[in-house]
Amino acid sequence: MTKKELFHIAEDYFQQQGWTAFPFQKQTWDAFISGKNGLLNAPTGSGKTYALWVAIVLNYIKSNPDYKTKNNKGLKAIWITPLRSLSQEIAQTSQKFVDGIGLPFTVGIRSGDTSTKERAAQKKSLPDLLITTPESLHLLLATKDHAHLLKDCNAIIVDEWHELLGTKRGVQMELGLSRLAGINNNLRIWGISATIGNLEQARQVLLGVDSSRFRESVLIKSNLKKKIQVRSIIPETMDKFPWRGHLGLHLLEDVVKIIHKSRSTLIFTNTRAQCELWFQALMHSHPEFAGEVAMHHGSINKETRIWVENAIRNESLKACICTSSLDLGVDFAPVETIIQIGGPKGVARFLQRAGRSGHQPGETSVIYFLPTHALELIEASALQKAVTTQAVEDRLPYLNCYDVLIQYLCTLAVSGGFDPIEIYPEVKGTFCYQELTYEEFEWCLKFIVYGSSSLASYDEYKKVSIDEDGRYFIDDRGIAMRHRLQMGTIVTGTDITVKYLTGGYIGSIEEYFISQLSRGEVFVFAGRTLEFIRFKGMVAQVRNSTRKKGKVTNWMGSRMPLSSQLGELLREEMQNFQTGSQRTPEVKALNDIIARQQEESTVPQKHEFLIETFKTREGYHAVFYPFEGRLVHMAMAGLIAYRISLLQPISFSLAYNDYGFEILSDQEFDMHNVLDNNLITSEMILEDLEASVNATELAKRKFRDIAVIAGLVFTGYPNKAVKVKHLQSSSQLLFEVFRDHEPDNLLFRQAYTETYEQEIEEYRLREAFERIENQTIVWKACERPTPFSFPIITDRLREKLSSEQLADRIKRMQLKWD
Q1: DSSP secondary-structure letter at 251?
Q2: Does the pLDDT value for residue 680 go beyond 90?
Q3: Quick one: pLDDT at residue 324?
Q4: 9: nearest Cα among 64, 72, 49, 48
């Protein structure tokens, strides 16, 4: 068949649906049929799925013109999705197309939600298209006959590639792709991404370095400009001293009005705890919404999540409060409006969420921005400009993740064994391991066989054997089972299953939260008020409570840092708020706060770095405003405090938010001294970091995750998980053994590398210091706290006081300083 005839098949189907194929879809079909690999960049809701699934089908028809009567059984393509919630939508779209053109293809899903019975059936006969996750793909690679099962797979599509890039799941995906390409030289690899800054690099990470696959690849851009309307929800009155949480739920009635006006609304929160809180508040204030408003996040059980997704599609829900679990490309065509609660912390995330409304080509996306404190209106204003420029963040790829490589080698050893001479070039061809030397690869091989030099005396670390042909294999069933149970790179606190006393499953909560509850204590989870009864194994048994309020469930590590891109936009936007040159609604709303800030201190311009000092009954405060995000501010605060303490023996307490940080002491310290001695500098940054932020303690925490991924510590069997504190103590012991006896251990070194790159964001910290060195430092000695400093001060108090005490304390502070 000619390309023209093949395209005609797809265009006929599109015509039946009342659609016309976009140029980028036809470009993708053409490139794929021509044997190219590539990356497709197109906005959410533009038909990306049809671009590549149609290409796979047309390529099959090209070789099998009698496709309607004869189907060669076996796996033709794998579709990787980072979220389970996407699987159903992709499966339905894919099946609908092949049914529509009369092709007898089957589409199957394999993920953590797939039943054991279905997995067993898939092993005997895989579907034509398998939709799966990176973790489930590696479980497939761990089966003994995986090479035979996958040999006819001619295409692999990695959906939402930007979500995987810059994570260990992305590294896991790189290794999986290298193995699939090793099994089938004719494999075509494609990625799909809606929002990413470094597209060229993303394509190289996907396809590998220095390979013909990359050289013969294409980058296809849709050039479809998505129209996005950003509307700020502005309160009628505004406190002159803003603090995190002083708005938010106080604007609940504004949210209710938007819900009533729209056919359907998605309300995005940044954390699962915030999601629970908003759902509870909405149900409490408006019980008439029962059955019309739902909640969706990753800890709620599968059945509820699927029910919510289907209810959004068929428009039986007015609104859904959700987290990033609904960020990605699930096609909810009926969604009319998006509300973002609080700053999204990144331009790409904001655009992704905005794209959930008007999720069809040509439609305008409408997103409302609801600030949780007044200064977030500056963020709203900056995001409106970002929407126009479409300047999104880069996703920086990882390098040399030894823990993921060790897990991968054990996966291959479980699947019948591997020859290192065959596997090393495959691994070396990936972006992550392009600098991996054979000595480092050999170290990893020795590690899985002997457990490293300092652990050679302990049999429990010896997992892999070597046969006479030099193949590495695992034949111990217990070791193989434990490896399969622990595969994956997402390491969180141990999850506790939450069930009713009568047995109904509700969802899962992290152990650290549930362990704080006493018998009879009430907590809020999955939109319900529950009373904790008891632990039974790894199950928390509960019953419904009649009480209206309780502890809101929270999860570790759920607060997102501000991206460098958004930080840059905020610094630029400050100038507009200072001059008031553009009379936007946000500028008007913050007029009194900005005037008060100007009166007490100043609003820094882009070329200025502001420092404020003042005294209160708590002590002497110095507040710095880099606008670089919490993680950078945490490290910068510790580093500057350490440098001050070298000049003057003094102790500090530190506080920080996304806009700045506070150094507080009960003794006065001279800011002239700080500036004259050039303490705000990038010189000696690594040495001072080691001394100031206790890198060893941070590295110990990082090492726990590395030890779990590398299989050094076992997280436990289903319903018999090892407690987090036991995992921490086991990994800490290993960390200390390596530190004292094997400092060149690659996993030990990796813990420090990750601490500086991910926890402290050392590269961003260095860039921030270098930028400040080129700015004019503006030091203002103030008489009292300023509107800009107030959210940072109150964040510190939040750690010590209950929400009621905090509100009272803040009210007294506001009255005193007003």
Answers
A1: G
A2: yes
A3: 81
A4: 64
Place of tokens 């690999």: 37
pLDDT tens string 562-576 = 788 888 888 888 877
Cα–Cα distance, 578 to 500 (Å, whole number): 55
Residue appearing with tokens 């580093």: 639
d(CA 49, CA 25): 9
- What is the per-residue burial (b if ≥16 Cβ within 10 Å, else e) of 440-469? ebebbbebbbbbbebbeeeeebebbbeeee
Residues 6+ apart with CB under 8 A from 617: none
Average the pLDDT over each of 242-251, 537-546, 674-683 and give the range with the smallest value.
Answer: 242-251
Burial 483-493 (b: 16+ CB within 10 A, else e): beebbbbebeb
pLDDT digits (tens, 9 = 90+) for 766-795: 999 999 999 999 999 999 999 999 888 887
What DSSP assignment string belongs to 579-637? HT-S--HHHHHTHHHHHHHHHHS----TTEEEEEEEEETTEEEEEEE----HHHHHHHH
DSSP bridge partners of 110: 132
Chain center to CA of 755: 18
Contacts of 803 (CB under 8 A, 6+ apart): none
Which two structure tokens, joined as six digits, stand for 110?
A: 């394999």
* 533 within 8 A of 546, measured Cβ to Cβ: no
In tens, the pLDDT along 433-469 reads 999 999 999 999 999 999 888 888 888 889 999 999 9
Half-sphere exposure of 453 (CA within 13 A, CB side): 11
Largest CA distance in the chain: 86
Mark out the alpha helices in 73-167 (DSSP H runs): 84-100, 116-124, 134-141, 146-150, 161-164
Provide the b/e sequence for 161-200 (b: ≥16 CB within 10 Å). Answer: bbbbbbbbbbbbbbbbbbbbbebbeebbbbbbbbbbbbbe
The residues, ordered by sequence, that sit 6+ positions from 346 with a Cβ below 8 Å of its Cβ are 393, 560, 562, 563, 565, 566
Q: What is the DSSP string of 653-712?
A: EEEE-SS-EEEEESS---HHHHHHTT-SSSTTHHHHHHHHTTHHHHHHHHHHHHHHHHTS
Distance separating alpha carbons of residues 746 and 748, to the nearest angstrom:
5
In the predicted model, what is the mean pLDDT of residues 400-417? 96
